[in-house]
UniProtKB/TrEMBL annotation, chain A:
Matching Gene3D superfamilies: MetI-like
Domain of life: Bacteria
Main localisation: membrane
Bilayer-crossing regions: 27-54, 91-113, 122-144, 156-178, 199-222, 258-279
Record localization: Cell membrane
Keywords: Cell membrane, Membrane, Sugar transport, Transmembrane, Transmembrane helix, Transport
UniProt entry tagged with the keyword Chaperone: no
GO annotation, biological process: transmembrane transport
Protein name in the entry: Multiple sugar transport system permease protein
A cellular component term, taken from the record's GO annotations: plasma membrane
Similarity comment: Belongs to the binding-protein-dependent transport system permease family.
ABC transmembrane type-1 domain mapped to chain residues: 87-279
Pfam families (UniProt xref): BPD_transp_1
Source organism of this protein record: Kribbella solani
Automatic annotation (TrEMBL), chain B:
Pfam families: BPD_transp_1 (PF00528)
Protein name stated in the entry: Multiple sugar transport system permease protein
GO cellular component, one term: plasma membrane
Top-level taxon: Bacteria
Membrane topology designation: Multi-pass membrane protein
Chain ranges passing through the membrane: 21-41, 76-98, 110-130, 161-182, 203-224, 278-299
Principal location class: membrane
Amino acid sequence: MTATAITSAVPLTSAARTARRTRFLQWVGVHALAIAAALFFVLPFVFIFLTALMSDQQALTRNLWPDSWHWENLRTVWETPGFLTWWKNTLMYAVLGTALTLVSSIPVAYALARFSFRGRNVVLMLVIATMMLPPQVVIVPMYLFWAKQLHLSGTLWPLIIPMAFTDAFSVFLLRQFLLTIPKDYVDAAKVDGCGDFTALLRIILPMAKPAIAAVALFQFFYCWNDYFGPQIYASENPAAWTLSYGLESFKGAHHTNWNLTMAATLLVMAPVIVLFFFAQKAFIEGVTLTGVKG
Amino acid sequence: MTLRQKHRRETLRNLAFLSPWLIGVSVFFLYPLVSTVYFSFMKYDGFTPPTWNGLKNWQYVFTDYPFFWPALRNTLWLVVVMVTLRVLFGLGIGMLITKVKTGAGLFRTAFYLPYLAPPVAATMAFAFLLNPGTGPVNNILGSIGLPQPGWFNDPNWSKPALTMLALWGIGDLMVIFMASLLDVPQEQYEAASLDGAGAWQRFRFVTLPNISPIVLFAVVTGVIQTMQYYTQPLVAGKVASGVIGSSGQQFEPGYPEKSTLTLPQLVYHLGFQRFDTGGASVIALVLFVLAMVFTGFLMRSMSERSTA
């Protein structure tokens, strides 16, 4: 098209018309494709929602649309014994875990981004290595440690306490962001007589808000979604179950009731979706930061 | 203050800042890693004191444990098919979204949201959607006259079903590709167009070279994620086999016919269901070696990017 514009021997109006038509067809094509793709991503949510509101009998049929809307299904799920406990446990795990991760990871990330010392690259490599390691690699000795020596199995503490000693992914993400803050800010603060810790607290933290928000959200969702951890440490004690772990057993208790299972699934997904709408930017920024600015 | 005092003060400061990590990595990584190596040579059920077992655990896992090789084969399948499709699909969606002009925010949200769905919830939802009898997907396939696969109940279809679930959660890759596509210098496209390059040639000679480090990053992190693939295949197998909710004691992992087995599941099966700490440690070390090999690739790809 650009080529036509340069060697334009034909009248300009006709060339412009062709160009406009091509642009229009492209617009239609791109949007049709986007709608088709969006259906693949959205339809599962729609079917979950529709089934969650069906009657018990109808959920066993092949109907896609509810004959009548059973909003009380959500209530039934909510009042299932244990469900509220799982919510509380999950919230405790996620809130405490996130708070501890932030407090412990920020100074480490700052040191890795700003201080130069011997072995810094080794530390960084170890951080990336632990970030990439499947949790199953160390789970057997870790379980024995928590269960036999500290007698804390059947609780969520073996999952929460380690977060007071940093989380590799959070350290990495924060460091990536802190690298982008110019050194001059801290140098200026030091000239004014600030110590390293005060500089971090007063100058860097306010500037690093977007990254801190991203880390907090990722860590919150990691805890909210975690299945393996609660399976290992909490499975023996239903009072310590989390939503992810309890959801599976919920399906067991309501073996044939896909409607109640999907209603429970909705209730587990809901907080994640709501939080996303409040914090879209932080998410996108976090993903970009770990993926693109290596 | 002498230079030496300054140096010592800096060292103390560094140690103070790093101390949470130093404690964490020692207690929750190095110590258990060494223990895993130790246990891999011991006979230990978690109750009676461990005794020396030589290479017997290793021998058992590689020759007599019926789940090891199927799990490794499945991992290979997932790496080749799932990772490839995820990268291609993520790139495709990323390119599409950079072209969308109307309602871009809405589309972006639609593509991103499934990535956030809790894995257990997403897997349960897919087990319902792909339920061979009454699930909406087979329902729709049937009504337009297409074959209706058994999905999670058919060993030939369980991995494609897991792949669909993985493609549904592609939001993170979409964002990463989108950001890197927007970083490609616009002048290069204009120059290519002036040289008469068509759409494919512009993609081949401008887009691809610019984003190839990101593609490499996506492939390597994809492989590492596949090494850790645990919740989705386990929950899918449990729901499809109908043993869900009980303690899982009688669950034969990998339902149907070991087709959803992955290596991390074996650590749980041996260590926590069969109380074979030694065997579980061997699997854990195999996982460790595989993960570290690919992490090595990842670090190389990252350092290439930062020097480029």
